[in-house]
Amino acid sequence: MLEVVGKRPTSGQRHPKTSQRRSVSLDSVAELYLRETCGKVLLSGEAGMGKTVLSLKLLADIAHRRKTDPALLYGGTVQPVPVIFNLPTWPSQLELQDWLAGNLAERFRLKQTVAARLVSDGYVLPILDSLDEVDSEARPSDKTATIVAAVNRYSATRVGARLILTCRSDSTIYHRVRKQIRGFDELRVHPLRYIDVRDYLESQCGEDNASEWKIVLDAAADSTSPVRGVLGTPWRLAMSATYLRGGGSAEDFLPTRDERRSRKAMTIPAAYLNRVEGLLYETFISARSRHHGKQPIRVTLHLMQIAKLLEEGKRRSVAAPTELLLHEWWRLLDRRKVSLYQALLVFTLINLSFSAFRFFEFSENDKPESPVIYALAFFSNFILLALLAGRAAGVRTSPLRVSLRSLRTSRGGVLVAASAAIAVLAGGTAYISTGPSYGISIGAAIALTGTIGATLAPWDHLTVESPLAILRKDFLASALFGVAIGGFVGIYTTELLGKPVGVALGLGYVFAAIASSIMAKYLIAVYISAGVGAPWRLARFLSWGCRAGLLRVSGVGYQFRHKGLQQYLLDLQRSTFPDGTDAR
User: Fold this and answer.
1) pLDDT value at position 295?
2) CA quadruple 253, 255, 256, 258: dihedral sign
């Protein structure tokens, strides 16, 4: 149920406009927003009241109206398309329009210029979700105020701008910044009515265990009962139905004498809420795990560790607090440990490549004339390869991809032209001094290496189909470049030091390129995190979690299905392992 609280003041007003408080049904929220608000709305409510779900309902209704009546105008412009944006992922140093355009381009695989035009021309209705989660209430910063100021600038510089903010009304952040939000109407989400709770439980639980859920209903009939508060939110009501259908006891919903006490009036006692939510989340995870063929205990341990790593990444400001990116999984761990393991992997693979010696025998032409000079040349190449690979592994922090369109850019054209010139010069010199086959091979290898190098580009959201696709494209780009440069080095050193050395060095460069890729960082991070309780097959587990309804895909990352679920897992991890140990 919604309540129209009133209008926020604009920058030229001393006092807010007020409107009569009245209740609004869920089905008419789109009509209310489109006809009776200024287009800028603060959607508030307590935790779990369904603000995000209401945003999705508003999104669907507005999108439906736009489809059925596309000629509907607002201030001379076509009705915009509503899109939900997760505010905690907004870098506060960016202006709102720049972040919206970048986020829109990444999620919907649009060109940056197209996304920027859609935002600037008002074709997008931004629904900015979770303002209360931008900062930690325990460790507040200025980020929320900075973002609110950016929102005010955005709305003040656009005539008829439409914007929706969601924020928990029971958070300290809401009370700290609500007066700073200028020119916004406020719609507040209130708990479900008793009749709504009754109808839902009757439809979901049926008559088989009517005696159980009717006990809960009797307790919820009192508007001051904590049971009414728990069942008054859509998310907890849905989990309560799951709990009762699964054989849970209705007595668990009844508060004890100590749990009836609350420091604040009209609030659910914290002890009671924590106990009941713990039961509901435990049942929810167990039911979803068993339904999809997994062990609930193991799933819970994996989710606990993921929640812990996300929280640690947020604390170190290396990751969004609610989003898990596979290609940045390594950032959530000890970066020095990841770098050390990657250096060891590079060194191991390089040594593995030199085991090719045993598969080859020196021919009469390959035998070195001077063992000393041969040893110096051999080990200098080995050390150079190790240093280059180790340096590349430490420097690379962003995935690459192969893009033929890069050849059309000025950078690509310069690289191709330069490699062609070097190929002609070096190939011609080798042709004259050594022979035609060697000269042609050297020239072709240089040209191919330069061309492949010109096609390498940073990962682009336009080419990404799934979160794992970024890693796959990075592996392909790294392996392809490694094959190219390894082929060149192999051909070059074969003539100078013999076929065994040429093959060993060529394979060494191939392995080194693969070992220094972001895919290698990800696999190393999975190995390290599995040792502290995270799943061994992280990508497969996350994909399963989405199918099971525990997680969801957001752009190129994964998120917990509900923020309360993530917080429950984090609290459970802390209480289960209070000494800081991990869920192994």
Assistant:
1) 92
2) positive
